[in-house]
Amino acid sequence: MGVAAPGSDITLSCYFPPSKNLNLKYLIVNWQHGESEVVHSYYYGRDQLERQSVVYKGRTHLFEDQIAVGNASLRLSGVQLSDQGQYTCYVTDEQGSTKEKLLLLVAAPFKEPQLSVQSSCDSFFITLNSSQGFPQPNVWWTDSIGGDLSNQSHSRIGLDSRGRYEVHSSMEVRPNSTLTIIAEMRLDVLNQSFTRSLTLHPLPECCEVSLATRGRLALGLLGIVLLAGLAMSLILYYRHKPETHQHQMVPRDDTTGQDEAHETET
């Protein structure tokens, strides 16, 4: 069996016993996928690709310099998921025929998962990360006694630019007592399995006190802002209030002046 990751290249091996004076004009090499899909054909001393399946166009070649010594292996480039399955190599020469079968599995192992944890004042946030694998794995969370916690988790599993999977699975935990969390990831086609565990302890009570303190501080700050706003409003009100003028009555003395006319007789 051959295993190839998406986007990679692989050589599908096929060997036959060559005759001493092998004439390549009378040699036939035919590669087939499944029951009838033509992958690559060679006869009359050269490639014959008229009947090649369109999905293999430009992705196959034989090692022509090694055919004369009995090597009819096929190089397949840019492996795709659709390439998975059974391949058959048929070789016919003047001495007889050879047939070899090969199973190609499109898969890639995942990197070692990393388990990380972050804590807030009232909970733990746990994350499992891995990448570069194919196909999609199974991920689940349990506690130390086998209780399934997967329904409390959130997983994002998607393909990267190379067609391989990235795994991000996380969950939030608020333990009231000591609790062991177990994260498991399995890729069945390659029999690859990972288990990561983490033991959590209840958060200290100071966190709860801190939350209460934050609430009181917030209320106190709000009160200060309201009082400051009220004081400013009063200041502005009195600053722009119209002035009241008081008029006083002042007694007025009327003095009647009598002018005396003096005549001077000459």
Task: Specify the overall morphology.
Answer: elongated
CATH class of the largest domain: Mainly Beta
- What's the gyration radius in Å? 46 Å
By DSSP (H or I, 4+ residues per run), the number of helices equals 2
Distance between the termini: 164 Å
Structural class: mainly beta
Helicity range: 10-25%
Number of beta-strand segments? 16
CATH superfamily of the largest domain: Immunoglobulins
Q: Major sheet, described briefly? A: 6 strands, mixed
Low-confidence stretches: 244-250, 254-266
- What is the CATH architecture annotation of the largest domain? Sandwich
Strand arrangement across the biggest beta sheet? 1-9-8-3-4-5
What does this structure look like?
The structure is a single chain. The chain has 266 residues and is mainly β. It folds into two domains: 105 residues, Immunoglobulins (Immunoglobulin-like); 87 residues, Immunoglobulin-like, CATH 2.60.40. Helices cover 14% and strands 39% of the residues. The chain contains two helices and 16 strands. It has a six-stranded mixed sheet with strand order 1-9-8-3-4-5, with no helix packed on it. Strands 10-11-14-13 form a four-stranded antiparallel sheet, with no helix packed on it. It is elongated and about 120 Å long.
Gist of the model:
The protein is mostly beta strands and 266 residues long. The protein has two helices and 16 strands.
Key terms:
four-stranded antiparallel beta sheet, 266 residues, 14% helix, six-stranded mixed beta sheet, Immunoglobulin-like, mainly beta
